[in-house]
Amino acid sequence: MEMVPIEETQLVPKEIESAAEEPRVLCIVQDTTSSKTINERLTLNLPASTTVNKLYEDVAHKAGYVNGTFCLGWVNTGDQAPLDQASEMSLVLSGFEAGKKNFLQLTDKDGEQPQIASDESGTADSSGLDDSSQDRFIGPLPRDGTVGCSSDYSSPSYSYSSILNKSDTGYVGLVNQAMTCYLNSLLQTLFMTPEFRNALYKWEFEDSEEDPVNSIPYQLQRLFVLLQTSKKRAIETTDVTRSFGWDSSEAWQQHDVQELCRVMFDALEQKWKQTEQADLINQLYQGKLKDYVRCLECGYESWRIDTYLDIPLVIRPFGASQAFGSVEEALQAFIQPETLDGPNQYFCERCKKKCDARKGLRFLHFPYLLTLQLKRFDFDYTTMHRIKLNDRMTFPEELDMSPFIDVEDEKSPQTESCTDSGAENEGSCHSDQMSNDFSTDDALDEGICLDNTSSTERVLKPKSSLTFELFSVMVHSGSAAGGHYYACIKSFSDSQWYSFNDQHVSKITQDDIRKTYGGSSGSRGYYSSAFASSTNAYMLMYRLKDPSRNAKFLEVGDFPEHIKRLMQREKESEEQEKRQREIERNTCKIKLFGMHPVKMMMVENKLEVHKDKTLREATEMAYKLMDLEGVVPLDCCRLVKYDEFHEYLERSYEGEEDMPMGLLLGGVKSSYMFDLLLEIRRPDQVFQPYKPGEVMVKVHVVDLKSESIAAPVSVRAYLNQTITEFKQLIAQATGLCAETMRVILERCYNDLRLLSVPNKTLKAEGFFRSNKVFVESSDSTDHQAVFTDSVLWKLLDRHGNTIRLFVSLPEQSPGSLANRTSCPKASADSEDSLDGAKGSRKSVEAILEESTEKLKNLSLQQQQQQSSSTSDSQKSSEHSDFEHIESPAQEPDAASQPSQTENCTRAASDTENQFPSEERSDSDVNNDRSTSSVDSDILSSSHSSDTLCNADSGPLPLANGLDSHSITSSRRSKAHEGKKEKWDTTEEDSGTDSEYDENGKIKADSQYLYFKAEPYSQEDGSGEGQKCLLVHVDKRITLAAFKQNLEPFVGVPSTQFKVFRVYANNQEFESVRLNETLSSFSDDNKITIRLGRALKKGEYRVKVYQLLVNDPEPCKFLLDTVFAKGMTVRQSKEELLPQLKDQCKLDLSIDRFRLRKKTWKNPGTVFLDYHVYEEDINISSNWEVFLEVLEEPERMKSMSQLAVLTRRWCPAQMKLEAFREVVLESSSVEELKEKLSELSGIPLENLEFAKGRGTFPCDISLLEIHQDLDWNPKVSTLNVWPLYICDDGAVIFYR
Compositional bias (Acidic residues) at which positions (predicted)? Predict the structure, then answer.
């Protein structure tokens, strides 16, 4: 096709230009009236002489809108005025260009969305199909390679509006919930079955018996009434699926139609017990067949009678290359007997020997409604994929079933006498029993029809009464991986065929039915591929042609009274829904925010207001919605335009209180690009006008003296203002002095910038719609320092990185002071501590007294060096980063003042969290001394951060245990920095890092990090509060330093407790990477502390399970322990012995148990004593291992050996013996057989073995063990297919 180039390289087919005498105009219209249509484009190719008026008509028809309820305008031009609908001017004269694309947009008119056309012909025809093709639309539009029900077809004219109007066929469709097309096709088939529908209508629901929501028959009844009387095009099935007990996720799973049919019928039978409909399903759908085996020597026959609801028909027999061509062929194959001969001979009870026999099925009775399931889904054993068979299989419109009835029984006296003799539909008979076993009671079992007639009539009747007519074809389109179901159903009212394809119902012809026979396109291999997609019949429903029984549908006038009442209720509900929808179309829904003055938090709501309500009325609605009645007066509130994402107040609506909300918000829309804020003022305040173009600035005032950051004050400024003008504005709002003011802009998270150029504009400094600044104005010398070295910067940096955590402490406190002694020192530094007495132990009281004296001396030195001090704390602005040093005057007696919390008050880093608290920070101090209050409970061990470091003495241990106190983390002095050991900060494979350096010394953070904690009580169910901490901490702190800071509260060294992070669903995970920071934590995260030894570097937590091979539950948990890298298996066994004795009461000797690999529940490799963890055995965190108790000394000495678990199968006794272990020196099958022969006494030539399947202990049914296992595989070694035994622990059955 020749193309005509136009602007911007767009091409228009030349035919469009020359198709008619006059040029044509290509219009592309974008519907912007709702989010659902924003991506749709309507294309119209019109003659250039078409008028604008006619264009509006064509767009209305194409989009399905009422003409005159929308506007058309140009896209991306300065001209915002819509095209004049009344204009009779041609398109060319109105500015349209012929031969080019003209882009238009369809918009709301007067703030109202377009009205949807009620006439069905006005619905959108986006697919480009003409009317006739829509009528004939029966299945999915071809979309190759698509999988999945909901996307495997596209509707030609579906939009929300199409649900509202009934199809011209008079039938109502069903909405596809997600993947419920299979359900829809079944429901429509049942609805179009007169006998089922009429019986369902006769049943009356009793309110007193159960909840109508859960009643399947009631919800089906409602659905059928709606399908018969609703004016909608399609109705929802959610109430029906809810009655099945499905949640919404199950609607997303594609189920099998046949499986669903059975589930639904079972549910109906359960509900209809003791009602008139009790046996309805059986009367309509249930048939009977005989499963028999007949001896070919004596004629003896054993049989049983089975019932069926559907007949499964094979499309292509297993292994055959040719499929059955018709349903009749498949039915003949279904009843074709097979001969049991050779090794399959049948043991005849009469002949008392194995004889040739004939085995097969015979139909005894066909149901009134016959269901044939075509087995199109199969499994391809070459590709190991589920596949769909798309072969052609024809089915007649009228099916004569008389050839398939029990013909043999009619001719043969032996079979004629085989009745249900009372032994639960099972029996055996031969010619001797002929006269005794027959009775008229068996007419249902043996008969052909439901009438209880004589045997002669029963034999003759099939010839004339077994013609069935086809009335429903359920079609599957797609592949074995997924697809779409729909139904072709013949109406018994007018004998017309209809396609029920979810919400679309259309007339179809016999030709369309023939298209569902199937037949793959092109030449395919032996099996169709798993993704070969095709459309073909999957399930067929026939009805017996019997004028005496064939029912007609109940008309509305003939409905029972309870159905008339139900119909009236549904009609009222539908009208109410219609009215509600009309209100919805005229309701503006917009997010509403507001700062609640009592809750002191931003509250979010959704304001739903009719477009004709005024701003004044909307403000009153918002006032009530925010629950402010009685809290603030209504006249202290107003609605303003707000951008929640940027926290920006866009504009206020002064003087527009009586304007309708539809105009104010720009029309009724599904979503708005802005929100509303309900602003509240104090009675003595006046509302500021907010003008478009202003920027909003949240100003936080910083007080360096109290180290506090105030709540924000809002200031509005213009981007063209200078920094000097901006400072004046802030000075007016806050009362601070503009001369000494420092303004810091936080551009993004924690990115702080000092605004120091007076004449620079706010725009040049990077201000945007919403901004956050910190201001400080004082006469301190801090403003002379470089900003990044200033106290202000450090305070803001700390503020930006501080998070709040809730920490639950262990319930058991570690003990009282009276019965505790100090722990011996482990570090080199500590040996010369405490007056240089090496290794000496002092009483707790002596150490406390001594540490108190040192604290007092240190505090006095600090006081002399620093001029500024407060009543209860000391600060050093040059060397101490906001450090808190207790005043000696307020130092209580170490052992007697548990209420020291009150003396430790100081200002928090921000005003929102001011409380008496404990603060802790890693910092540089004069002479690198750190100070701490002294508390009374126990002494920490030397592996604690609670040490005082002096330049001339070793660390001094501190006690802990007070609920809240003030302490500063220690850092070694510069004099000791040379001595400080380095540690490896790389992560170990185990996922843990050591808290110690190589000499066992604690690793401490080398930078200032903030920590502050205070106790709070968390009430539990017993009424007693659990011991908890509210911790404010710099999230850059490492887990190791965080644990050290927690030591005083937990009461044990950080090595003796573990930290667990608690997630939203209360799941706990241990945090073990000690060198990682808390950066992954956020405000209000929860942490639980549990006592127990924390892991060192190279250590792994291990769960030990006992392997009990002959117990019903072979896997039993014993204990948690710790293994270390480099440890041998024997060393780990030695460590386990005392733990097993204490915790599990297992008294074992080291040579009488082994450790072995655990994979899920399967035992694996036996670990030998000399194996080393991490070298020979891979180990990981939360590793699991089996412990196996041995009855004799270990026989596994080398890795070349193989230990297998064997179990003898005794067919004669029908039992399996206990497991016994066999140790092989090689992977030879011959050696395995020799060992098994030795073990059992079975001669080698008679011994057979098979590998067990599945998870240990490889349980198997004793009835199926013969055929389910691969006995005596033809291999010489164990490590090849099909055995693949390469590791210890494999299960071998032998016989």
Answer: 986-997
